[in-house]
Amino acid sequence: MKNAKKYVIAASALLIILVGCGVAVGRALNGYDEYMFDDTPKTMEEILTEIRSLLQSHSLAAYIVPSVDAHNSEYISGHDRRLEYVTNFTGSAGTAIITLNAGLLWTDSRYHLQAEKQLDPAYWTLMKQGSVGVPSIDRWLLDNLPVESKVATDPFLITSTEFERLSGVLSAGGIRLMILERNPVDAIWNNRPPQSNGSLIPLDIKFSGKRASEKIADLRKDLETHKAAAIVINALDDVAWLLNLRGSDILHTPVFFAYVIVSNEHIYLFTNPDRITETILEHFRTEGVRVRIRNYEDILDGIAKQVRSGGHLIISTACSFAIYTEIPAEQRIQVYSIVANRKAVKNAVEAEGMRRTHIRDGAAIIRYLHWLEENVDSGNVTELSGAAKLAEFRSVQENFVDLSFTAISAFGSNGAIVHYSPTEETDTLITRDSVYLIDSGGQYFDGTTDTTRSVHMGEPTDFQKEAFTRVLKGFLSFGAAVFPNKTSGAFFDAMARRALWDVGLDYGHGTGHGVGSFLGVHEYPPSIGSTSVSQGLVENMFTSNEPGYYEAEKFGIRLEDVVQVVQADVPHDFGGRGALTFYTNTLVPLQTKLMDLGLMSEPEVELVNRYHERVLKEVGPLLLEQDANDAYIWLVKQTQAIVKI
Question: What is the model's pTM?
Answer without folding.
Answer: 0.92
